[in-house]
């Protein structure tokens, strides 16, 4: 295992770095595994101990391993502050799957193929709740005519509809040259990282956050740092500490019905965040894919409060599912132009077809009614979930559900390990533990919208059994 290729001409210490990172990426070395002592590694590699020390120092600085007094060198159990190696295998990074080294997710994918499993993991509405609309028939010639309405920023009629919606919902006047259509919110995020940051830069996100393990940050060489949250959202005092100590260049957050916790940032906290970002001249990226799924009035968007300080991301995927993979970025014209140029250079072109579908959906006369019916149905499922959750209330703290699609359950007793969560597999209940979003192992994200009445009953029976077993551990 600890052998180097004699054919490589790169420095030995760099070969050691690349090999150890490779072992971590392919799962040979797992989170928490202890590396051999420095002297042993030097013997295995047949090099001076100073070469091994140099390589380990680099791995520590890149966030792949940790050194603990009395425990030696161990593989980092989390992703905070992790960066890519000085010599990046870009081909591998761009082709790797989400969470490539996470055994838990491999088992999740297996179980999702089992029709008997209860899927509360997937981040989409069930098909029965997705709003319906009539899509007019198009000939190939008509689609080619629609293609002529496409600009480098996207399908112009869709841009115009988004401008109207932003004006109506956020009280902001924007023009089409401030809107870039993307193939979903993740592509939007990737473009922003490429244009606004350089390899080695640091980004602050919420802790926990769905961004925690996305490979787009690794591929851009960007370090992530988590900011503790409370009931009002991201803590501004903790964020300022990070800005001062980690040279944060960008703040990315999901302030309304946050993924995974479901928390909505208060208006007071939003104003504090904007004030802090202005103090340090830091842009904010606001991911608002859940804001339309609200049961009550939500605070103004960050974009509404600070139009030039905030970059706004939107998407239709949470309403219509991933089949309509359309998102957008709303920002000042100069940035949109740079993003558009980057999009063209990377050949991230978007077919006219999904854009026409998105435009048809948003302009359908029944869209507002269908969306209102959807929100009503979600509210009914949320209330039913909370009412029936009393059977497990002594074991789990349950977050409020004011909108969105997730509820967050936190274990109230002894510390849980990653292995403890495998009990859910035996019961064929598929959930998303908090270690997929953070270093924490004490909570889980549940997509309550996917539960029928029967499924809810089954879920709580199974969770009651699981909780009894966890308490005995």
Automatic annotation (TrEMBL):
Q: Which residues form the HTH gntR-type domain?
A: 10-78
A GO molecular function assigned to this protein is: pyridoxal phosphate binding
State the UniProt keywords alphabetically: Aminotransferase, DNA-binding, Pyridoxal phosphate, Transcription, Transcription regulation, Transferase
- The superkingdom listed in its UniProt entry is Bacteria
Q: Which PROSITE patterns does this one have?
A: HTH_GNTR
Signal sequence interval, chain numbering: none
Q: Which CDD domains match?
A: AAT_like, WHTH_GntR
Q: Which Pfam families does this one have?
A: Aminotran_1_2, GntR
Q: Which family does it belong to?
A: In the C-terminal section; belongs to the class-I pyridoxal-phosphate-dependent aminotransferase family.
Protein name according to UniProt: PLP-dependent aminotransferase family protein
């Amino acid at each position: 295992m600890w052998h180097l290729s004699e054919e490589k001409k790169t420095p030995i210490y760099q070969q050691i770095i690349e090999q150890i990172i490779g072992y971590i990426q392919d799962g040979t070395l797992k989170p928490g595994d202890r590396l051999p002592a420095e002297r042993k590694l030097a013997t295995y590699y047949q090099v001076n101990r100073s070469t091994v020390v140099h390589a380990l120092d680099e791995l520590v600085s890149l966030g792949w391993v940790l050194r603990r007094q009395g425990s030696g060198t161990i593989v980092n159990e989390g992703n905070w502050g992790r960066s890519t190696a000085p010599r990046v295998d870009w081909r591998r990074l761009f082709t790797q799957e989400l969470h490539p080294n996470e055994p838990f997710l491999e088992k999740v994918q297996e179980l999702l193929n089992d029709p008997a499993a209860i899927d509360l993991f997937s981040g989409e509405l069930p098909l029965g709740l997705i709003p319906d609309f009539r899509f007019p028939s198009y000939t190939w010639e008509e689609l080619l005519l629609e293609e002529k309405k496409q600009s480098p920023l996207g399908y112009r009629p869709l841009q115009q509809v988004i401008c109207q919606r932003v004006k109506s919902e956020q009280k902001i006047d924007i023009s089409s040259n401030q809107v870039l259509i993307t193939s979903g919110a993740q592509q939007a995020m990737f473009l922003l990282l490429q244009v606004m940051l350089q390899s080695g830069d640091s980004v602050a996100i919420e802790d926990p956050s769905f961004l925690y393990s996305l490979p787009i940050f690794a591929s851009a060489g960007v370090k992530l740092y988590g900011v503790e949250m409370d009931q009002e959202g991201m803590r501004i005092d903790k964020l300022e500490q990070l800005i001062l100590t980690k040279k944060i260049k960008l703040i990315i957050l999901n302030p309304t019905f946050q993924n995974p916790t479901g928390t909505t940032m208060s208006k007071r906290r939003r104003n504090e965040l904007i004030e802090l970002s202005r103090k340090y001249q830091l842009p904010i990226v606001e991911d608002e894919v859940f804001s339309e799924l609200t049961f009550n009035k939500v605070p103004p968007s960050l974009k509404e409060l600070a139009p030039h300080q905030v970059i706004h991301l939107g998407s239709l995927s949470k309403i219509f599912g991933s089949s309509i993979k359309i998102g957008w970025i709303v920002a000042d014209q100069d940035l949109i132009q740079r993003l558009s140029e980057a999009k063209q250079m990377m050949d991230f072109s978007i077919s006219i077809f999904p854009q026409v579908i998105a435009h048809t959906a948003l302009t359908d006369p029944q869209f507002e009614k269908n969306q209102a019916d959807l929100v009503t149905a979600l509210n009914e499922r949320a209330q039913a979930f909370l009412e029936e959750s009393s059977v497990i209330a002594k074991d789990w703290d349950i977050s409020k559900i004011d909108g969105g699609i997730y509820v967050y359950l936190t274990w109230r007793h002894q510390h849980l390990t990653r292995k403890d969560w495998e009990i859910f597999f035996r019961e064929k209940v598929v959930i998303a533990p908090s270690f997929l979003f953070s270093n924490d192992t004490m909570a889980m994200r549940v997509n309550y919208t996917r539960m029928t009445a029967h499924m809810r009953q089954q879920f709580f029976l199974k969770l009651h059994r699981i909780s009894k077993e966890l308490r005995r551990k």
